[in-house]
Each structure stands twice: as structure tokens, then as C-alpha cells.
Amino acid sequence: MHTDLRIEILHSDKISAGLDGQIDRLDHLAFSGESHDDPEFNSIAWADHDWMMLGFVDETLVSQFCLLKREILVGGEPLLVAGIGGVATHPDWQRRGLASRLLRASETFMRDELRVPFGLLICADQTQPLYARCGWQTVAHSLNFTQNERQRQLDTCVMILPLANQPWPTGLIDLCGLPW
What we know:
CATH architecture: 3-Layer(aba) Sandwich
Number of domains: 1
Order of helices and strands: EHEEEHEHEEEEE
Distance between the termini: 32 Å
CATH superfamily: Gcn5-related N-acetyltransferase (GNAT)
CATH class: Alpha Beta
Number of strands: 10
Oligomer: single chain
Helix content: 10-25%
Structural class: alpha+beta
């Protein structure tokens, strides 16, 4: 069954209060029951996003994720990436390929508008197959980030989506700020 999905990419300053409320409700539905092995996970602050990738069926928000552009360090070398975070689909709409369709639609935006060689996301091991089916590749199982001027390590699956003819560098990944 093919669902008619209307996809929008909105800059964060173009999101109305009403739509922001819908985004928050969908986040709550998607992530409220998650448990994490890392006892410090709940103390992590998350980066603000620059854009939202939104999927609507009729006028109902059913799937979403945030996007940002950031210079990170990999093996001590600077690298621009498009960060994807908070991939969420309403429980009533899951297992219909909606998140995959949003992810595929974001590729052109990341490559042509953001002009970055890679997308980067972090995910739980159980969601890694979803991203792999969309062309994302696992490159690490931990990364560093900075919160409250303190360097921290997050043990999680780190995946990239190549968007240019450029090899992923080797070495430690440092997000140079908050994770997304």
C-alpha cells in the first residue's frame, strides 16, 4: 500500500507555534518509552536544529526528523556534515516506509542545498537496519561531544551517508558541540 506523503523541509524560524506543538507531541510519542544502557544518557542536552524534515498524510504530521549543518572533527581534521536526529514516526503510521521516504528525500537537500559530503546520524542498534536499507553505513560505535565545556563520550552506533565522491576519514569523531 502506497501512502500519499507530502514532504516539507522547513527552516526552524518558519515553524509556527501550532506546528511546533505537533512536532513535540510526535517526539513524545516516539521516544517516551525508550530505555538506554548509558546511565548518563538522560543528562545529555541535544543541539538545536536548523531545519525540520516533515512528512504529512493529509494535514496530519506522521513522520519527522531534524537537520543541522556542522563542522566536526574526524581524526583531528575538520569535516562538514549534515546531522540528522530525532527520526520519529507516529506509532499508528510505523512500518509503512515513511521514515525511509523522508530520509531518501533529504539526500538531495543535504547534497545540493547544504553542500556537505556526508550525512551523519547516531542511532540505537535496533534501528540501524532501517538506516542501512537507505544507504547509511556504520563508521563507529562511539563519538565525542562537548556539553557544559566538558568532553564526553557517547557509545552508540554512528552512521554516515556519503553524498560526494569522497572517502570517510579515519579516526575519532568529535561533534564539536552537542549531539543531535
